[in-house]
Amino acid sequence: MKFLVVDDSLTMRRIVINTLKTLGYEQVVEGADGKDAMAKLMTEGADFVITDWNMPEMSGLELSRWIRSTPQFADLPILMVTTRGNKDDVIEAMKARVNNYIVKPFTAQGLKDKIEQIMKTMESKTV
Amino acid sequence: MKQEDFNLLLQKVEELKALFVFSQRTVPFLGDVFNFIQEIVPVLQELRFSMDVASNKIPQAALHLNKVTHATETASTEILNILEKVFSTINSLDEKIRHRRQLVENKRKQLEIIENLLDKLITRNPDNLDIRKLNDLWKEHLQRENDILPLEDLSKTLDDIRSDSLNIMMALQVQDITAQQIAAVNRLMQAVDQGLTRLMQHFADVKLSRSEDSFNLPHLDISFDHSAEYENSAERQKIADEIVSKTFVRNKKHKNRIR
User: Fold this and answer.
1) Number of A:B CB contacts under 8 A?
2) Which residue, among A57, A54, A58, A109, has the nearest Cα to A80 in the 3D structure?
3) Do A105 and B171 touch (CB under 8 A)?
4) Smallest CA–CA separation between B222 and chain A, in Å?
5) Contact B244 A85 (CB under 8 A)
């Protein structure tokens, strides 16, 4: 499974990527913001998107909306990883049809649980 | 003079009288106003000076905060470099332990064979002292082998190191969160600075005593969440999980209705 990790903070990208590696996910592509992520999806593809919210050029929310409105990527699982933890933000993200939501700072176990929850949901949809 | 002229004169005198009465009432008030203006001018001058000074200091404060963000980013990068090496070393040791475990298992099987053979030798030669001595030495050797730290303990220790390293790495999220908090402060200072600059323009033609580019610094233009916090986010995650869960249930019900 190939992950696309999108965050304007290099530190955060490295944290997420290293955590994915300890969970056994070695194939990772990085994006520094929404626009970069769009380009990476078009050129390199991905099976799972983990994105921050607050980013320059194009936010994670805008990226999610673009993914859902683009037929070839519409079914990609999206996990929002963000400092935004209030109710309205979560609702807005769910309206943009992200699959799940994790608040920073998160634990490795927390990230693992969210990824597995999403995968389980995707599997039950295909059955 | 005609009667109308007298009437007009009287009217004008009345108007003049009214004017004097009005002036009598307003003069004290005007006096207060003039006194107030006299007192306020030095205060306004001091205010202008303070605003000028503050306006120069704000970009300096922004620059210092920018250095803080840059320093924490550099430190985080260095720590991450070391942690990645640690993870790589742990993975390498893990691999060696797996290989060693296989060798140990093969060795254990050989030891079992030797033990069985020795038991048979003793049974067939109960009075042979050399064989008994060999058996005792063998048992001592086996005991020494068992006293060597088992591979399971080594494996557990590596797991603990990996877990601790992972926790250190997760704690580095503080860098991203503090960078956002600093960006929020910088944005506030920028707004204050802009407000001060507008006010300064009211003080006749005031030239800014600093460059207009003072706020044009890297790390000041990052996207940020103004309410970013570094605290154990379990409570906030709980709120998010509840909403996500409700959304799933709602969507599932909706799909079932369509079917």
Assistant:
1) 111
2) A54
3) yes
4) 7
5) no
Residue B65 Cα, gap to closest chain A Cα (Å): 17
Q: What is the C-alpha end-to-end distance of chain A, expressed in Å? A: 19
In chain B, what residues touch A12 (CB-CB under 8 Å)? 173, 176
What ipTM was reported for this prediction? Answer: 0.87
**C-beta of residue B240 within 8 angstroms of C-beta of residue A114:** no
Upstream peptide bond of B42 is cis (omega within 30 degrees of 0): no
Residues 15-44 on A with a CB inside 8 Å of B are: 15, 18-19, 21-22
- Residues within 8 A of B (CB atoms), A 69-88 only: 82-87
Could you tell me if A55 and A34 are in contact, meaning their C-beta atoms sit under 8 angstroms apart?
Answer: yes
Burial environment of residue A81 by CB neighbours within 10 A (0 to 12, 13 to 18, 19 or more): buried
| pTM greater than 0.95 (yes/no) | no
**DSSP SS3 for A79:** strand
Distances (CA, A) of B216 to A20, A33, B226: 36, 21, 20
Closest CA to A84 of B169, B239, B183: B239
Task: Please write the tens of the pLDDT for every residue from B237-257.
Answer: 988 998 998 888 887 777 777
Q: Which of A49, A127, A59 is nearest to A89 (CA)?
A: A59
> Cβ separation of A83 and B166 shorter than 8 Å?
no
Environment class of residue B102 by beta-carbon count within 10 Å: exposed (0-12), middle (13-18) or buried (19+)? exposed
Residue B245: half-sphere exposure toward Cβ, Cα within 13 Å: 6
Say if residues A79 and A114 touch (Cβ distance below 8 Å). yes
List the structure tokens of B157: 């220790």
Which residue is closest to A19 within chain B, CA to CA? B166
What is the SS3 string spanning A8-26?
CCHHHHHHHHHHHHHCCCC
- Number of H helices and E strands in chain B, helices first, is 5, 0
A21-80, pLDDT tens digit by residue?
Answer: 999 999 999 999 999 999 999 999 999 999 999 998 899 999 999 999 999 999 999 999
Cβ distance of B176 and A104 shorter than 8 Å: yes
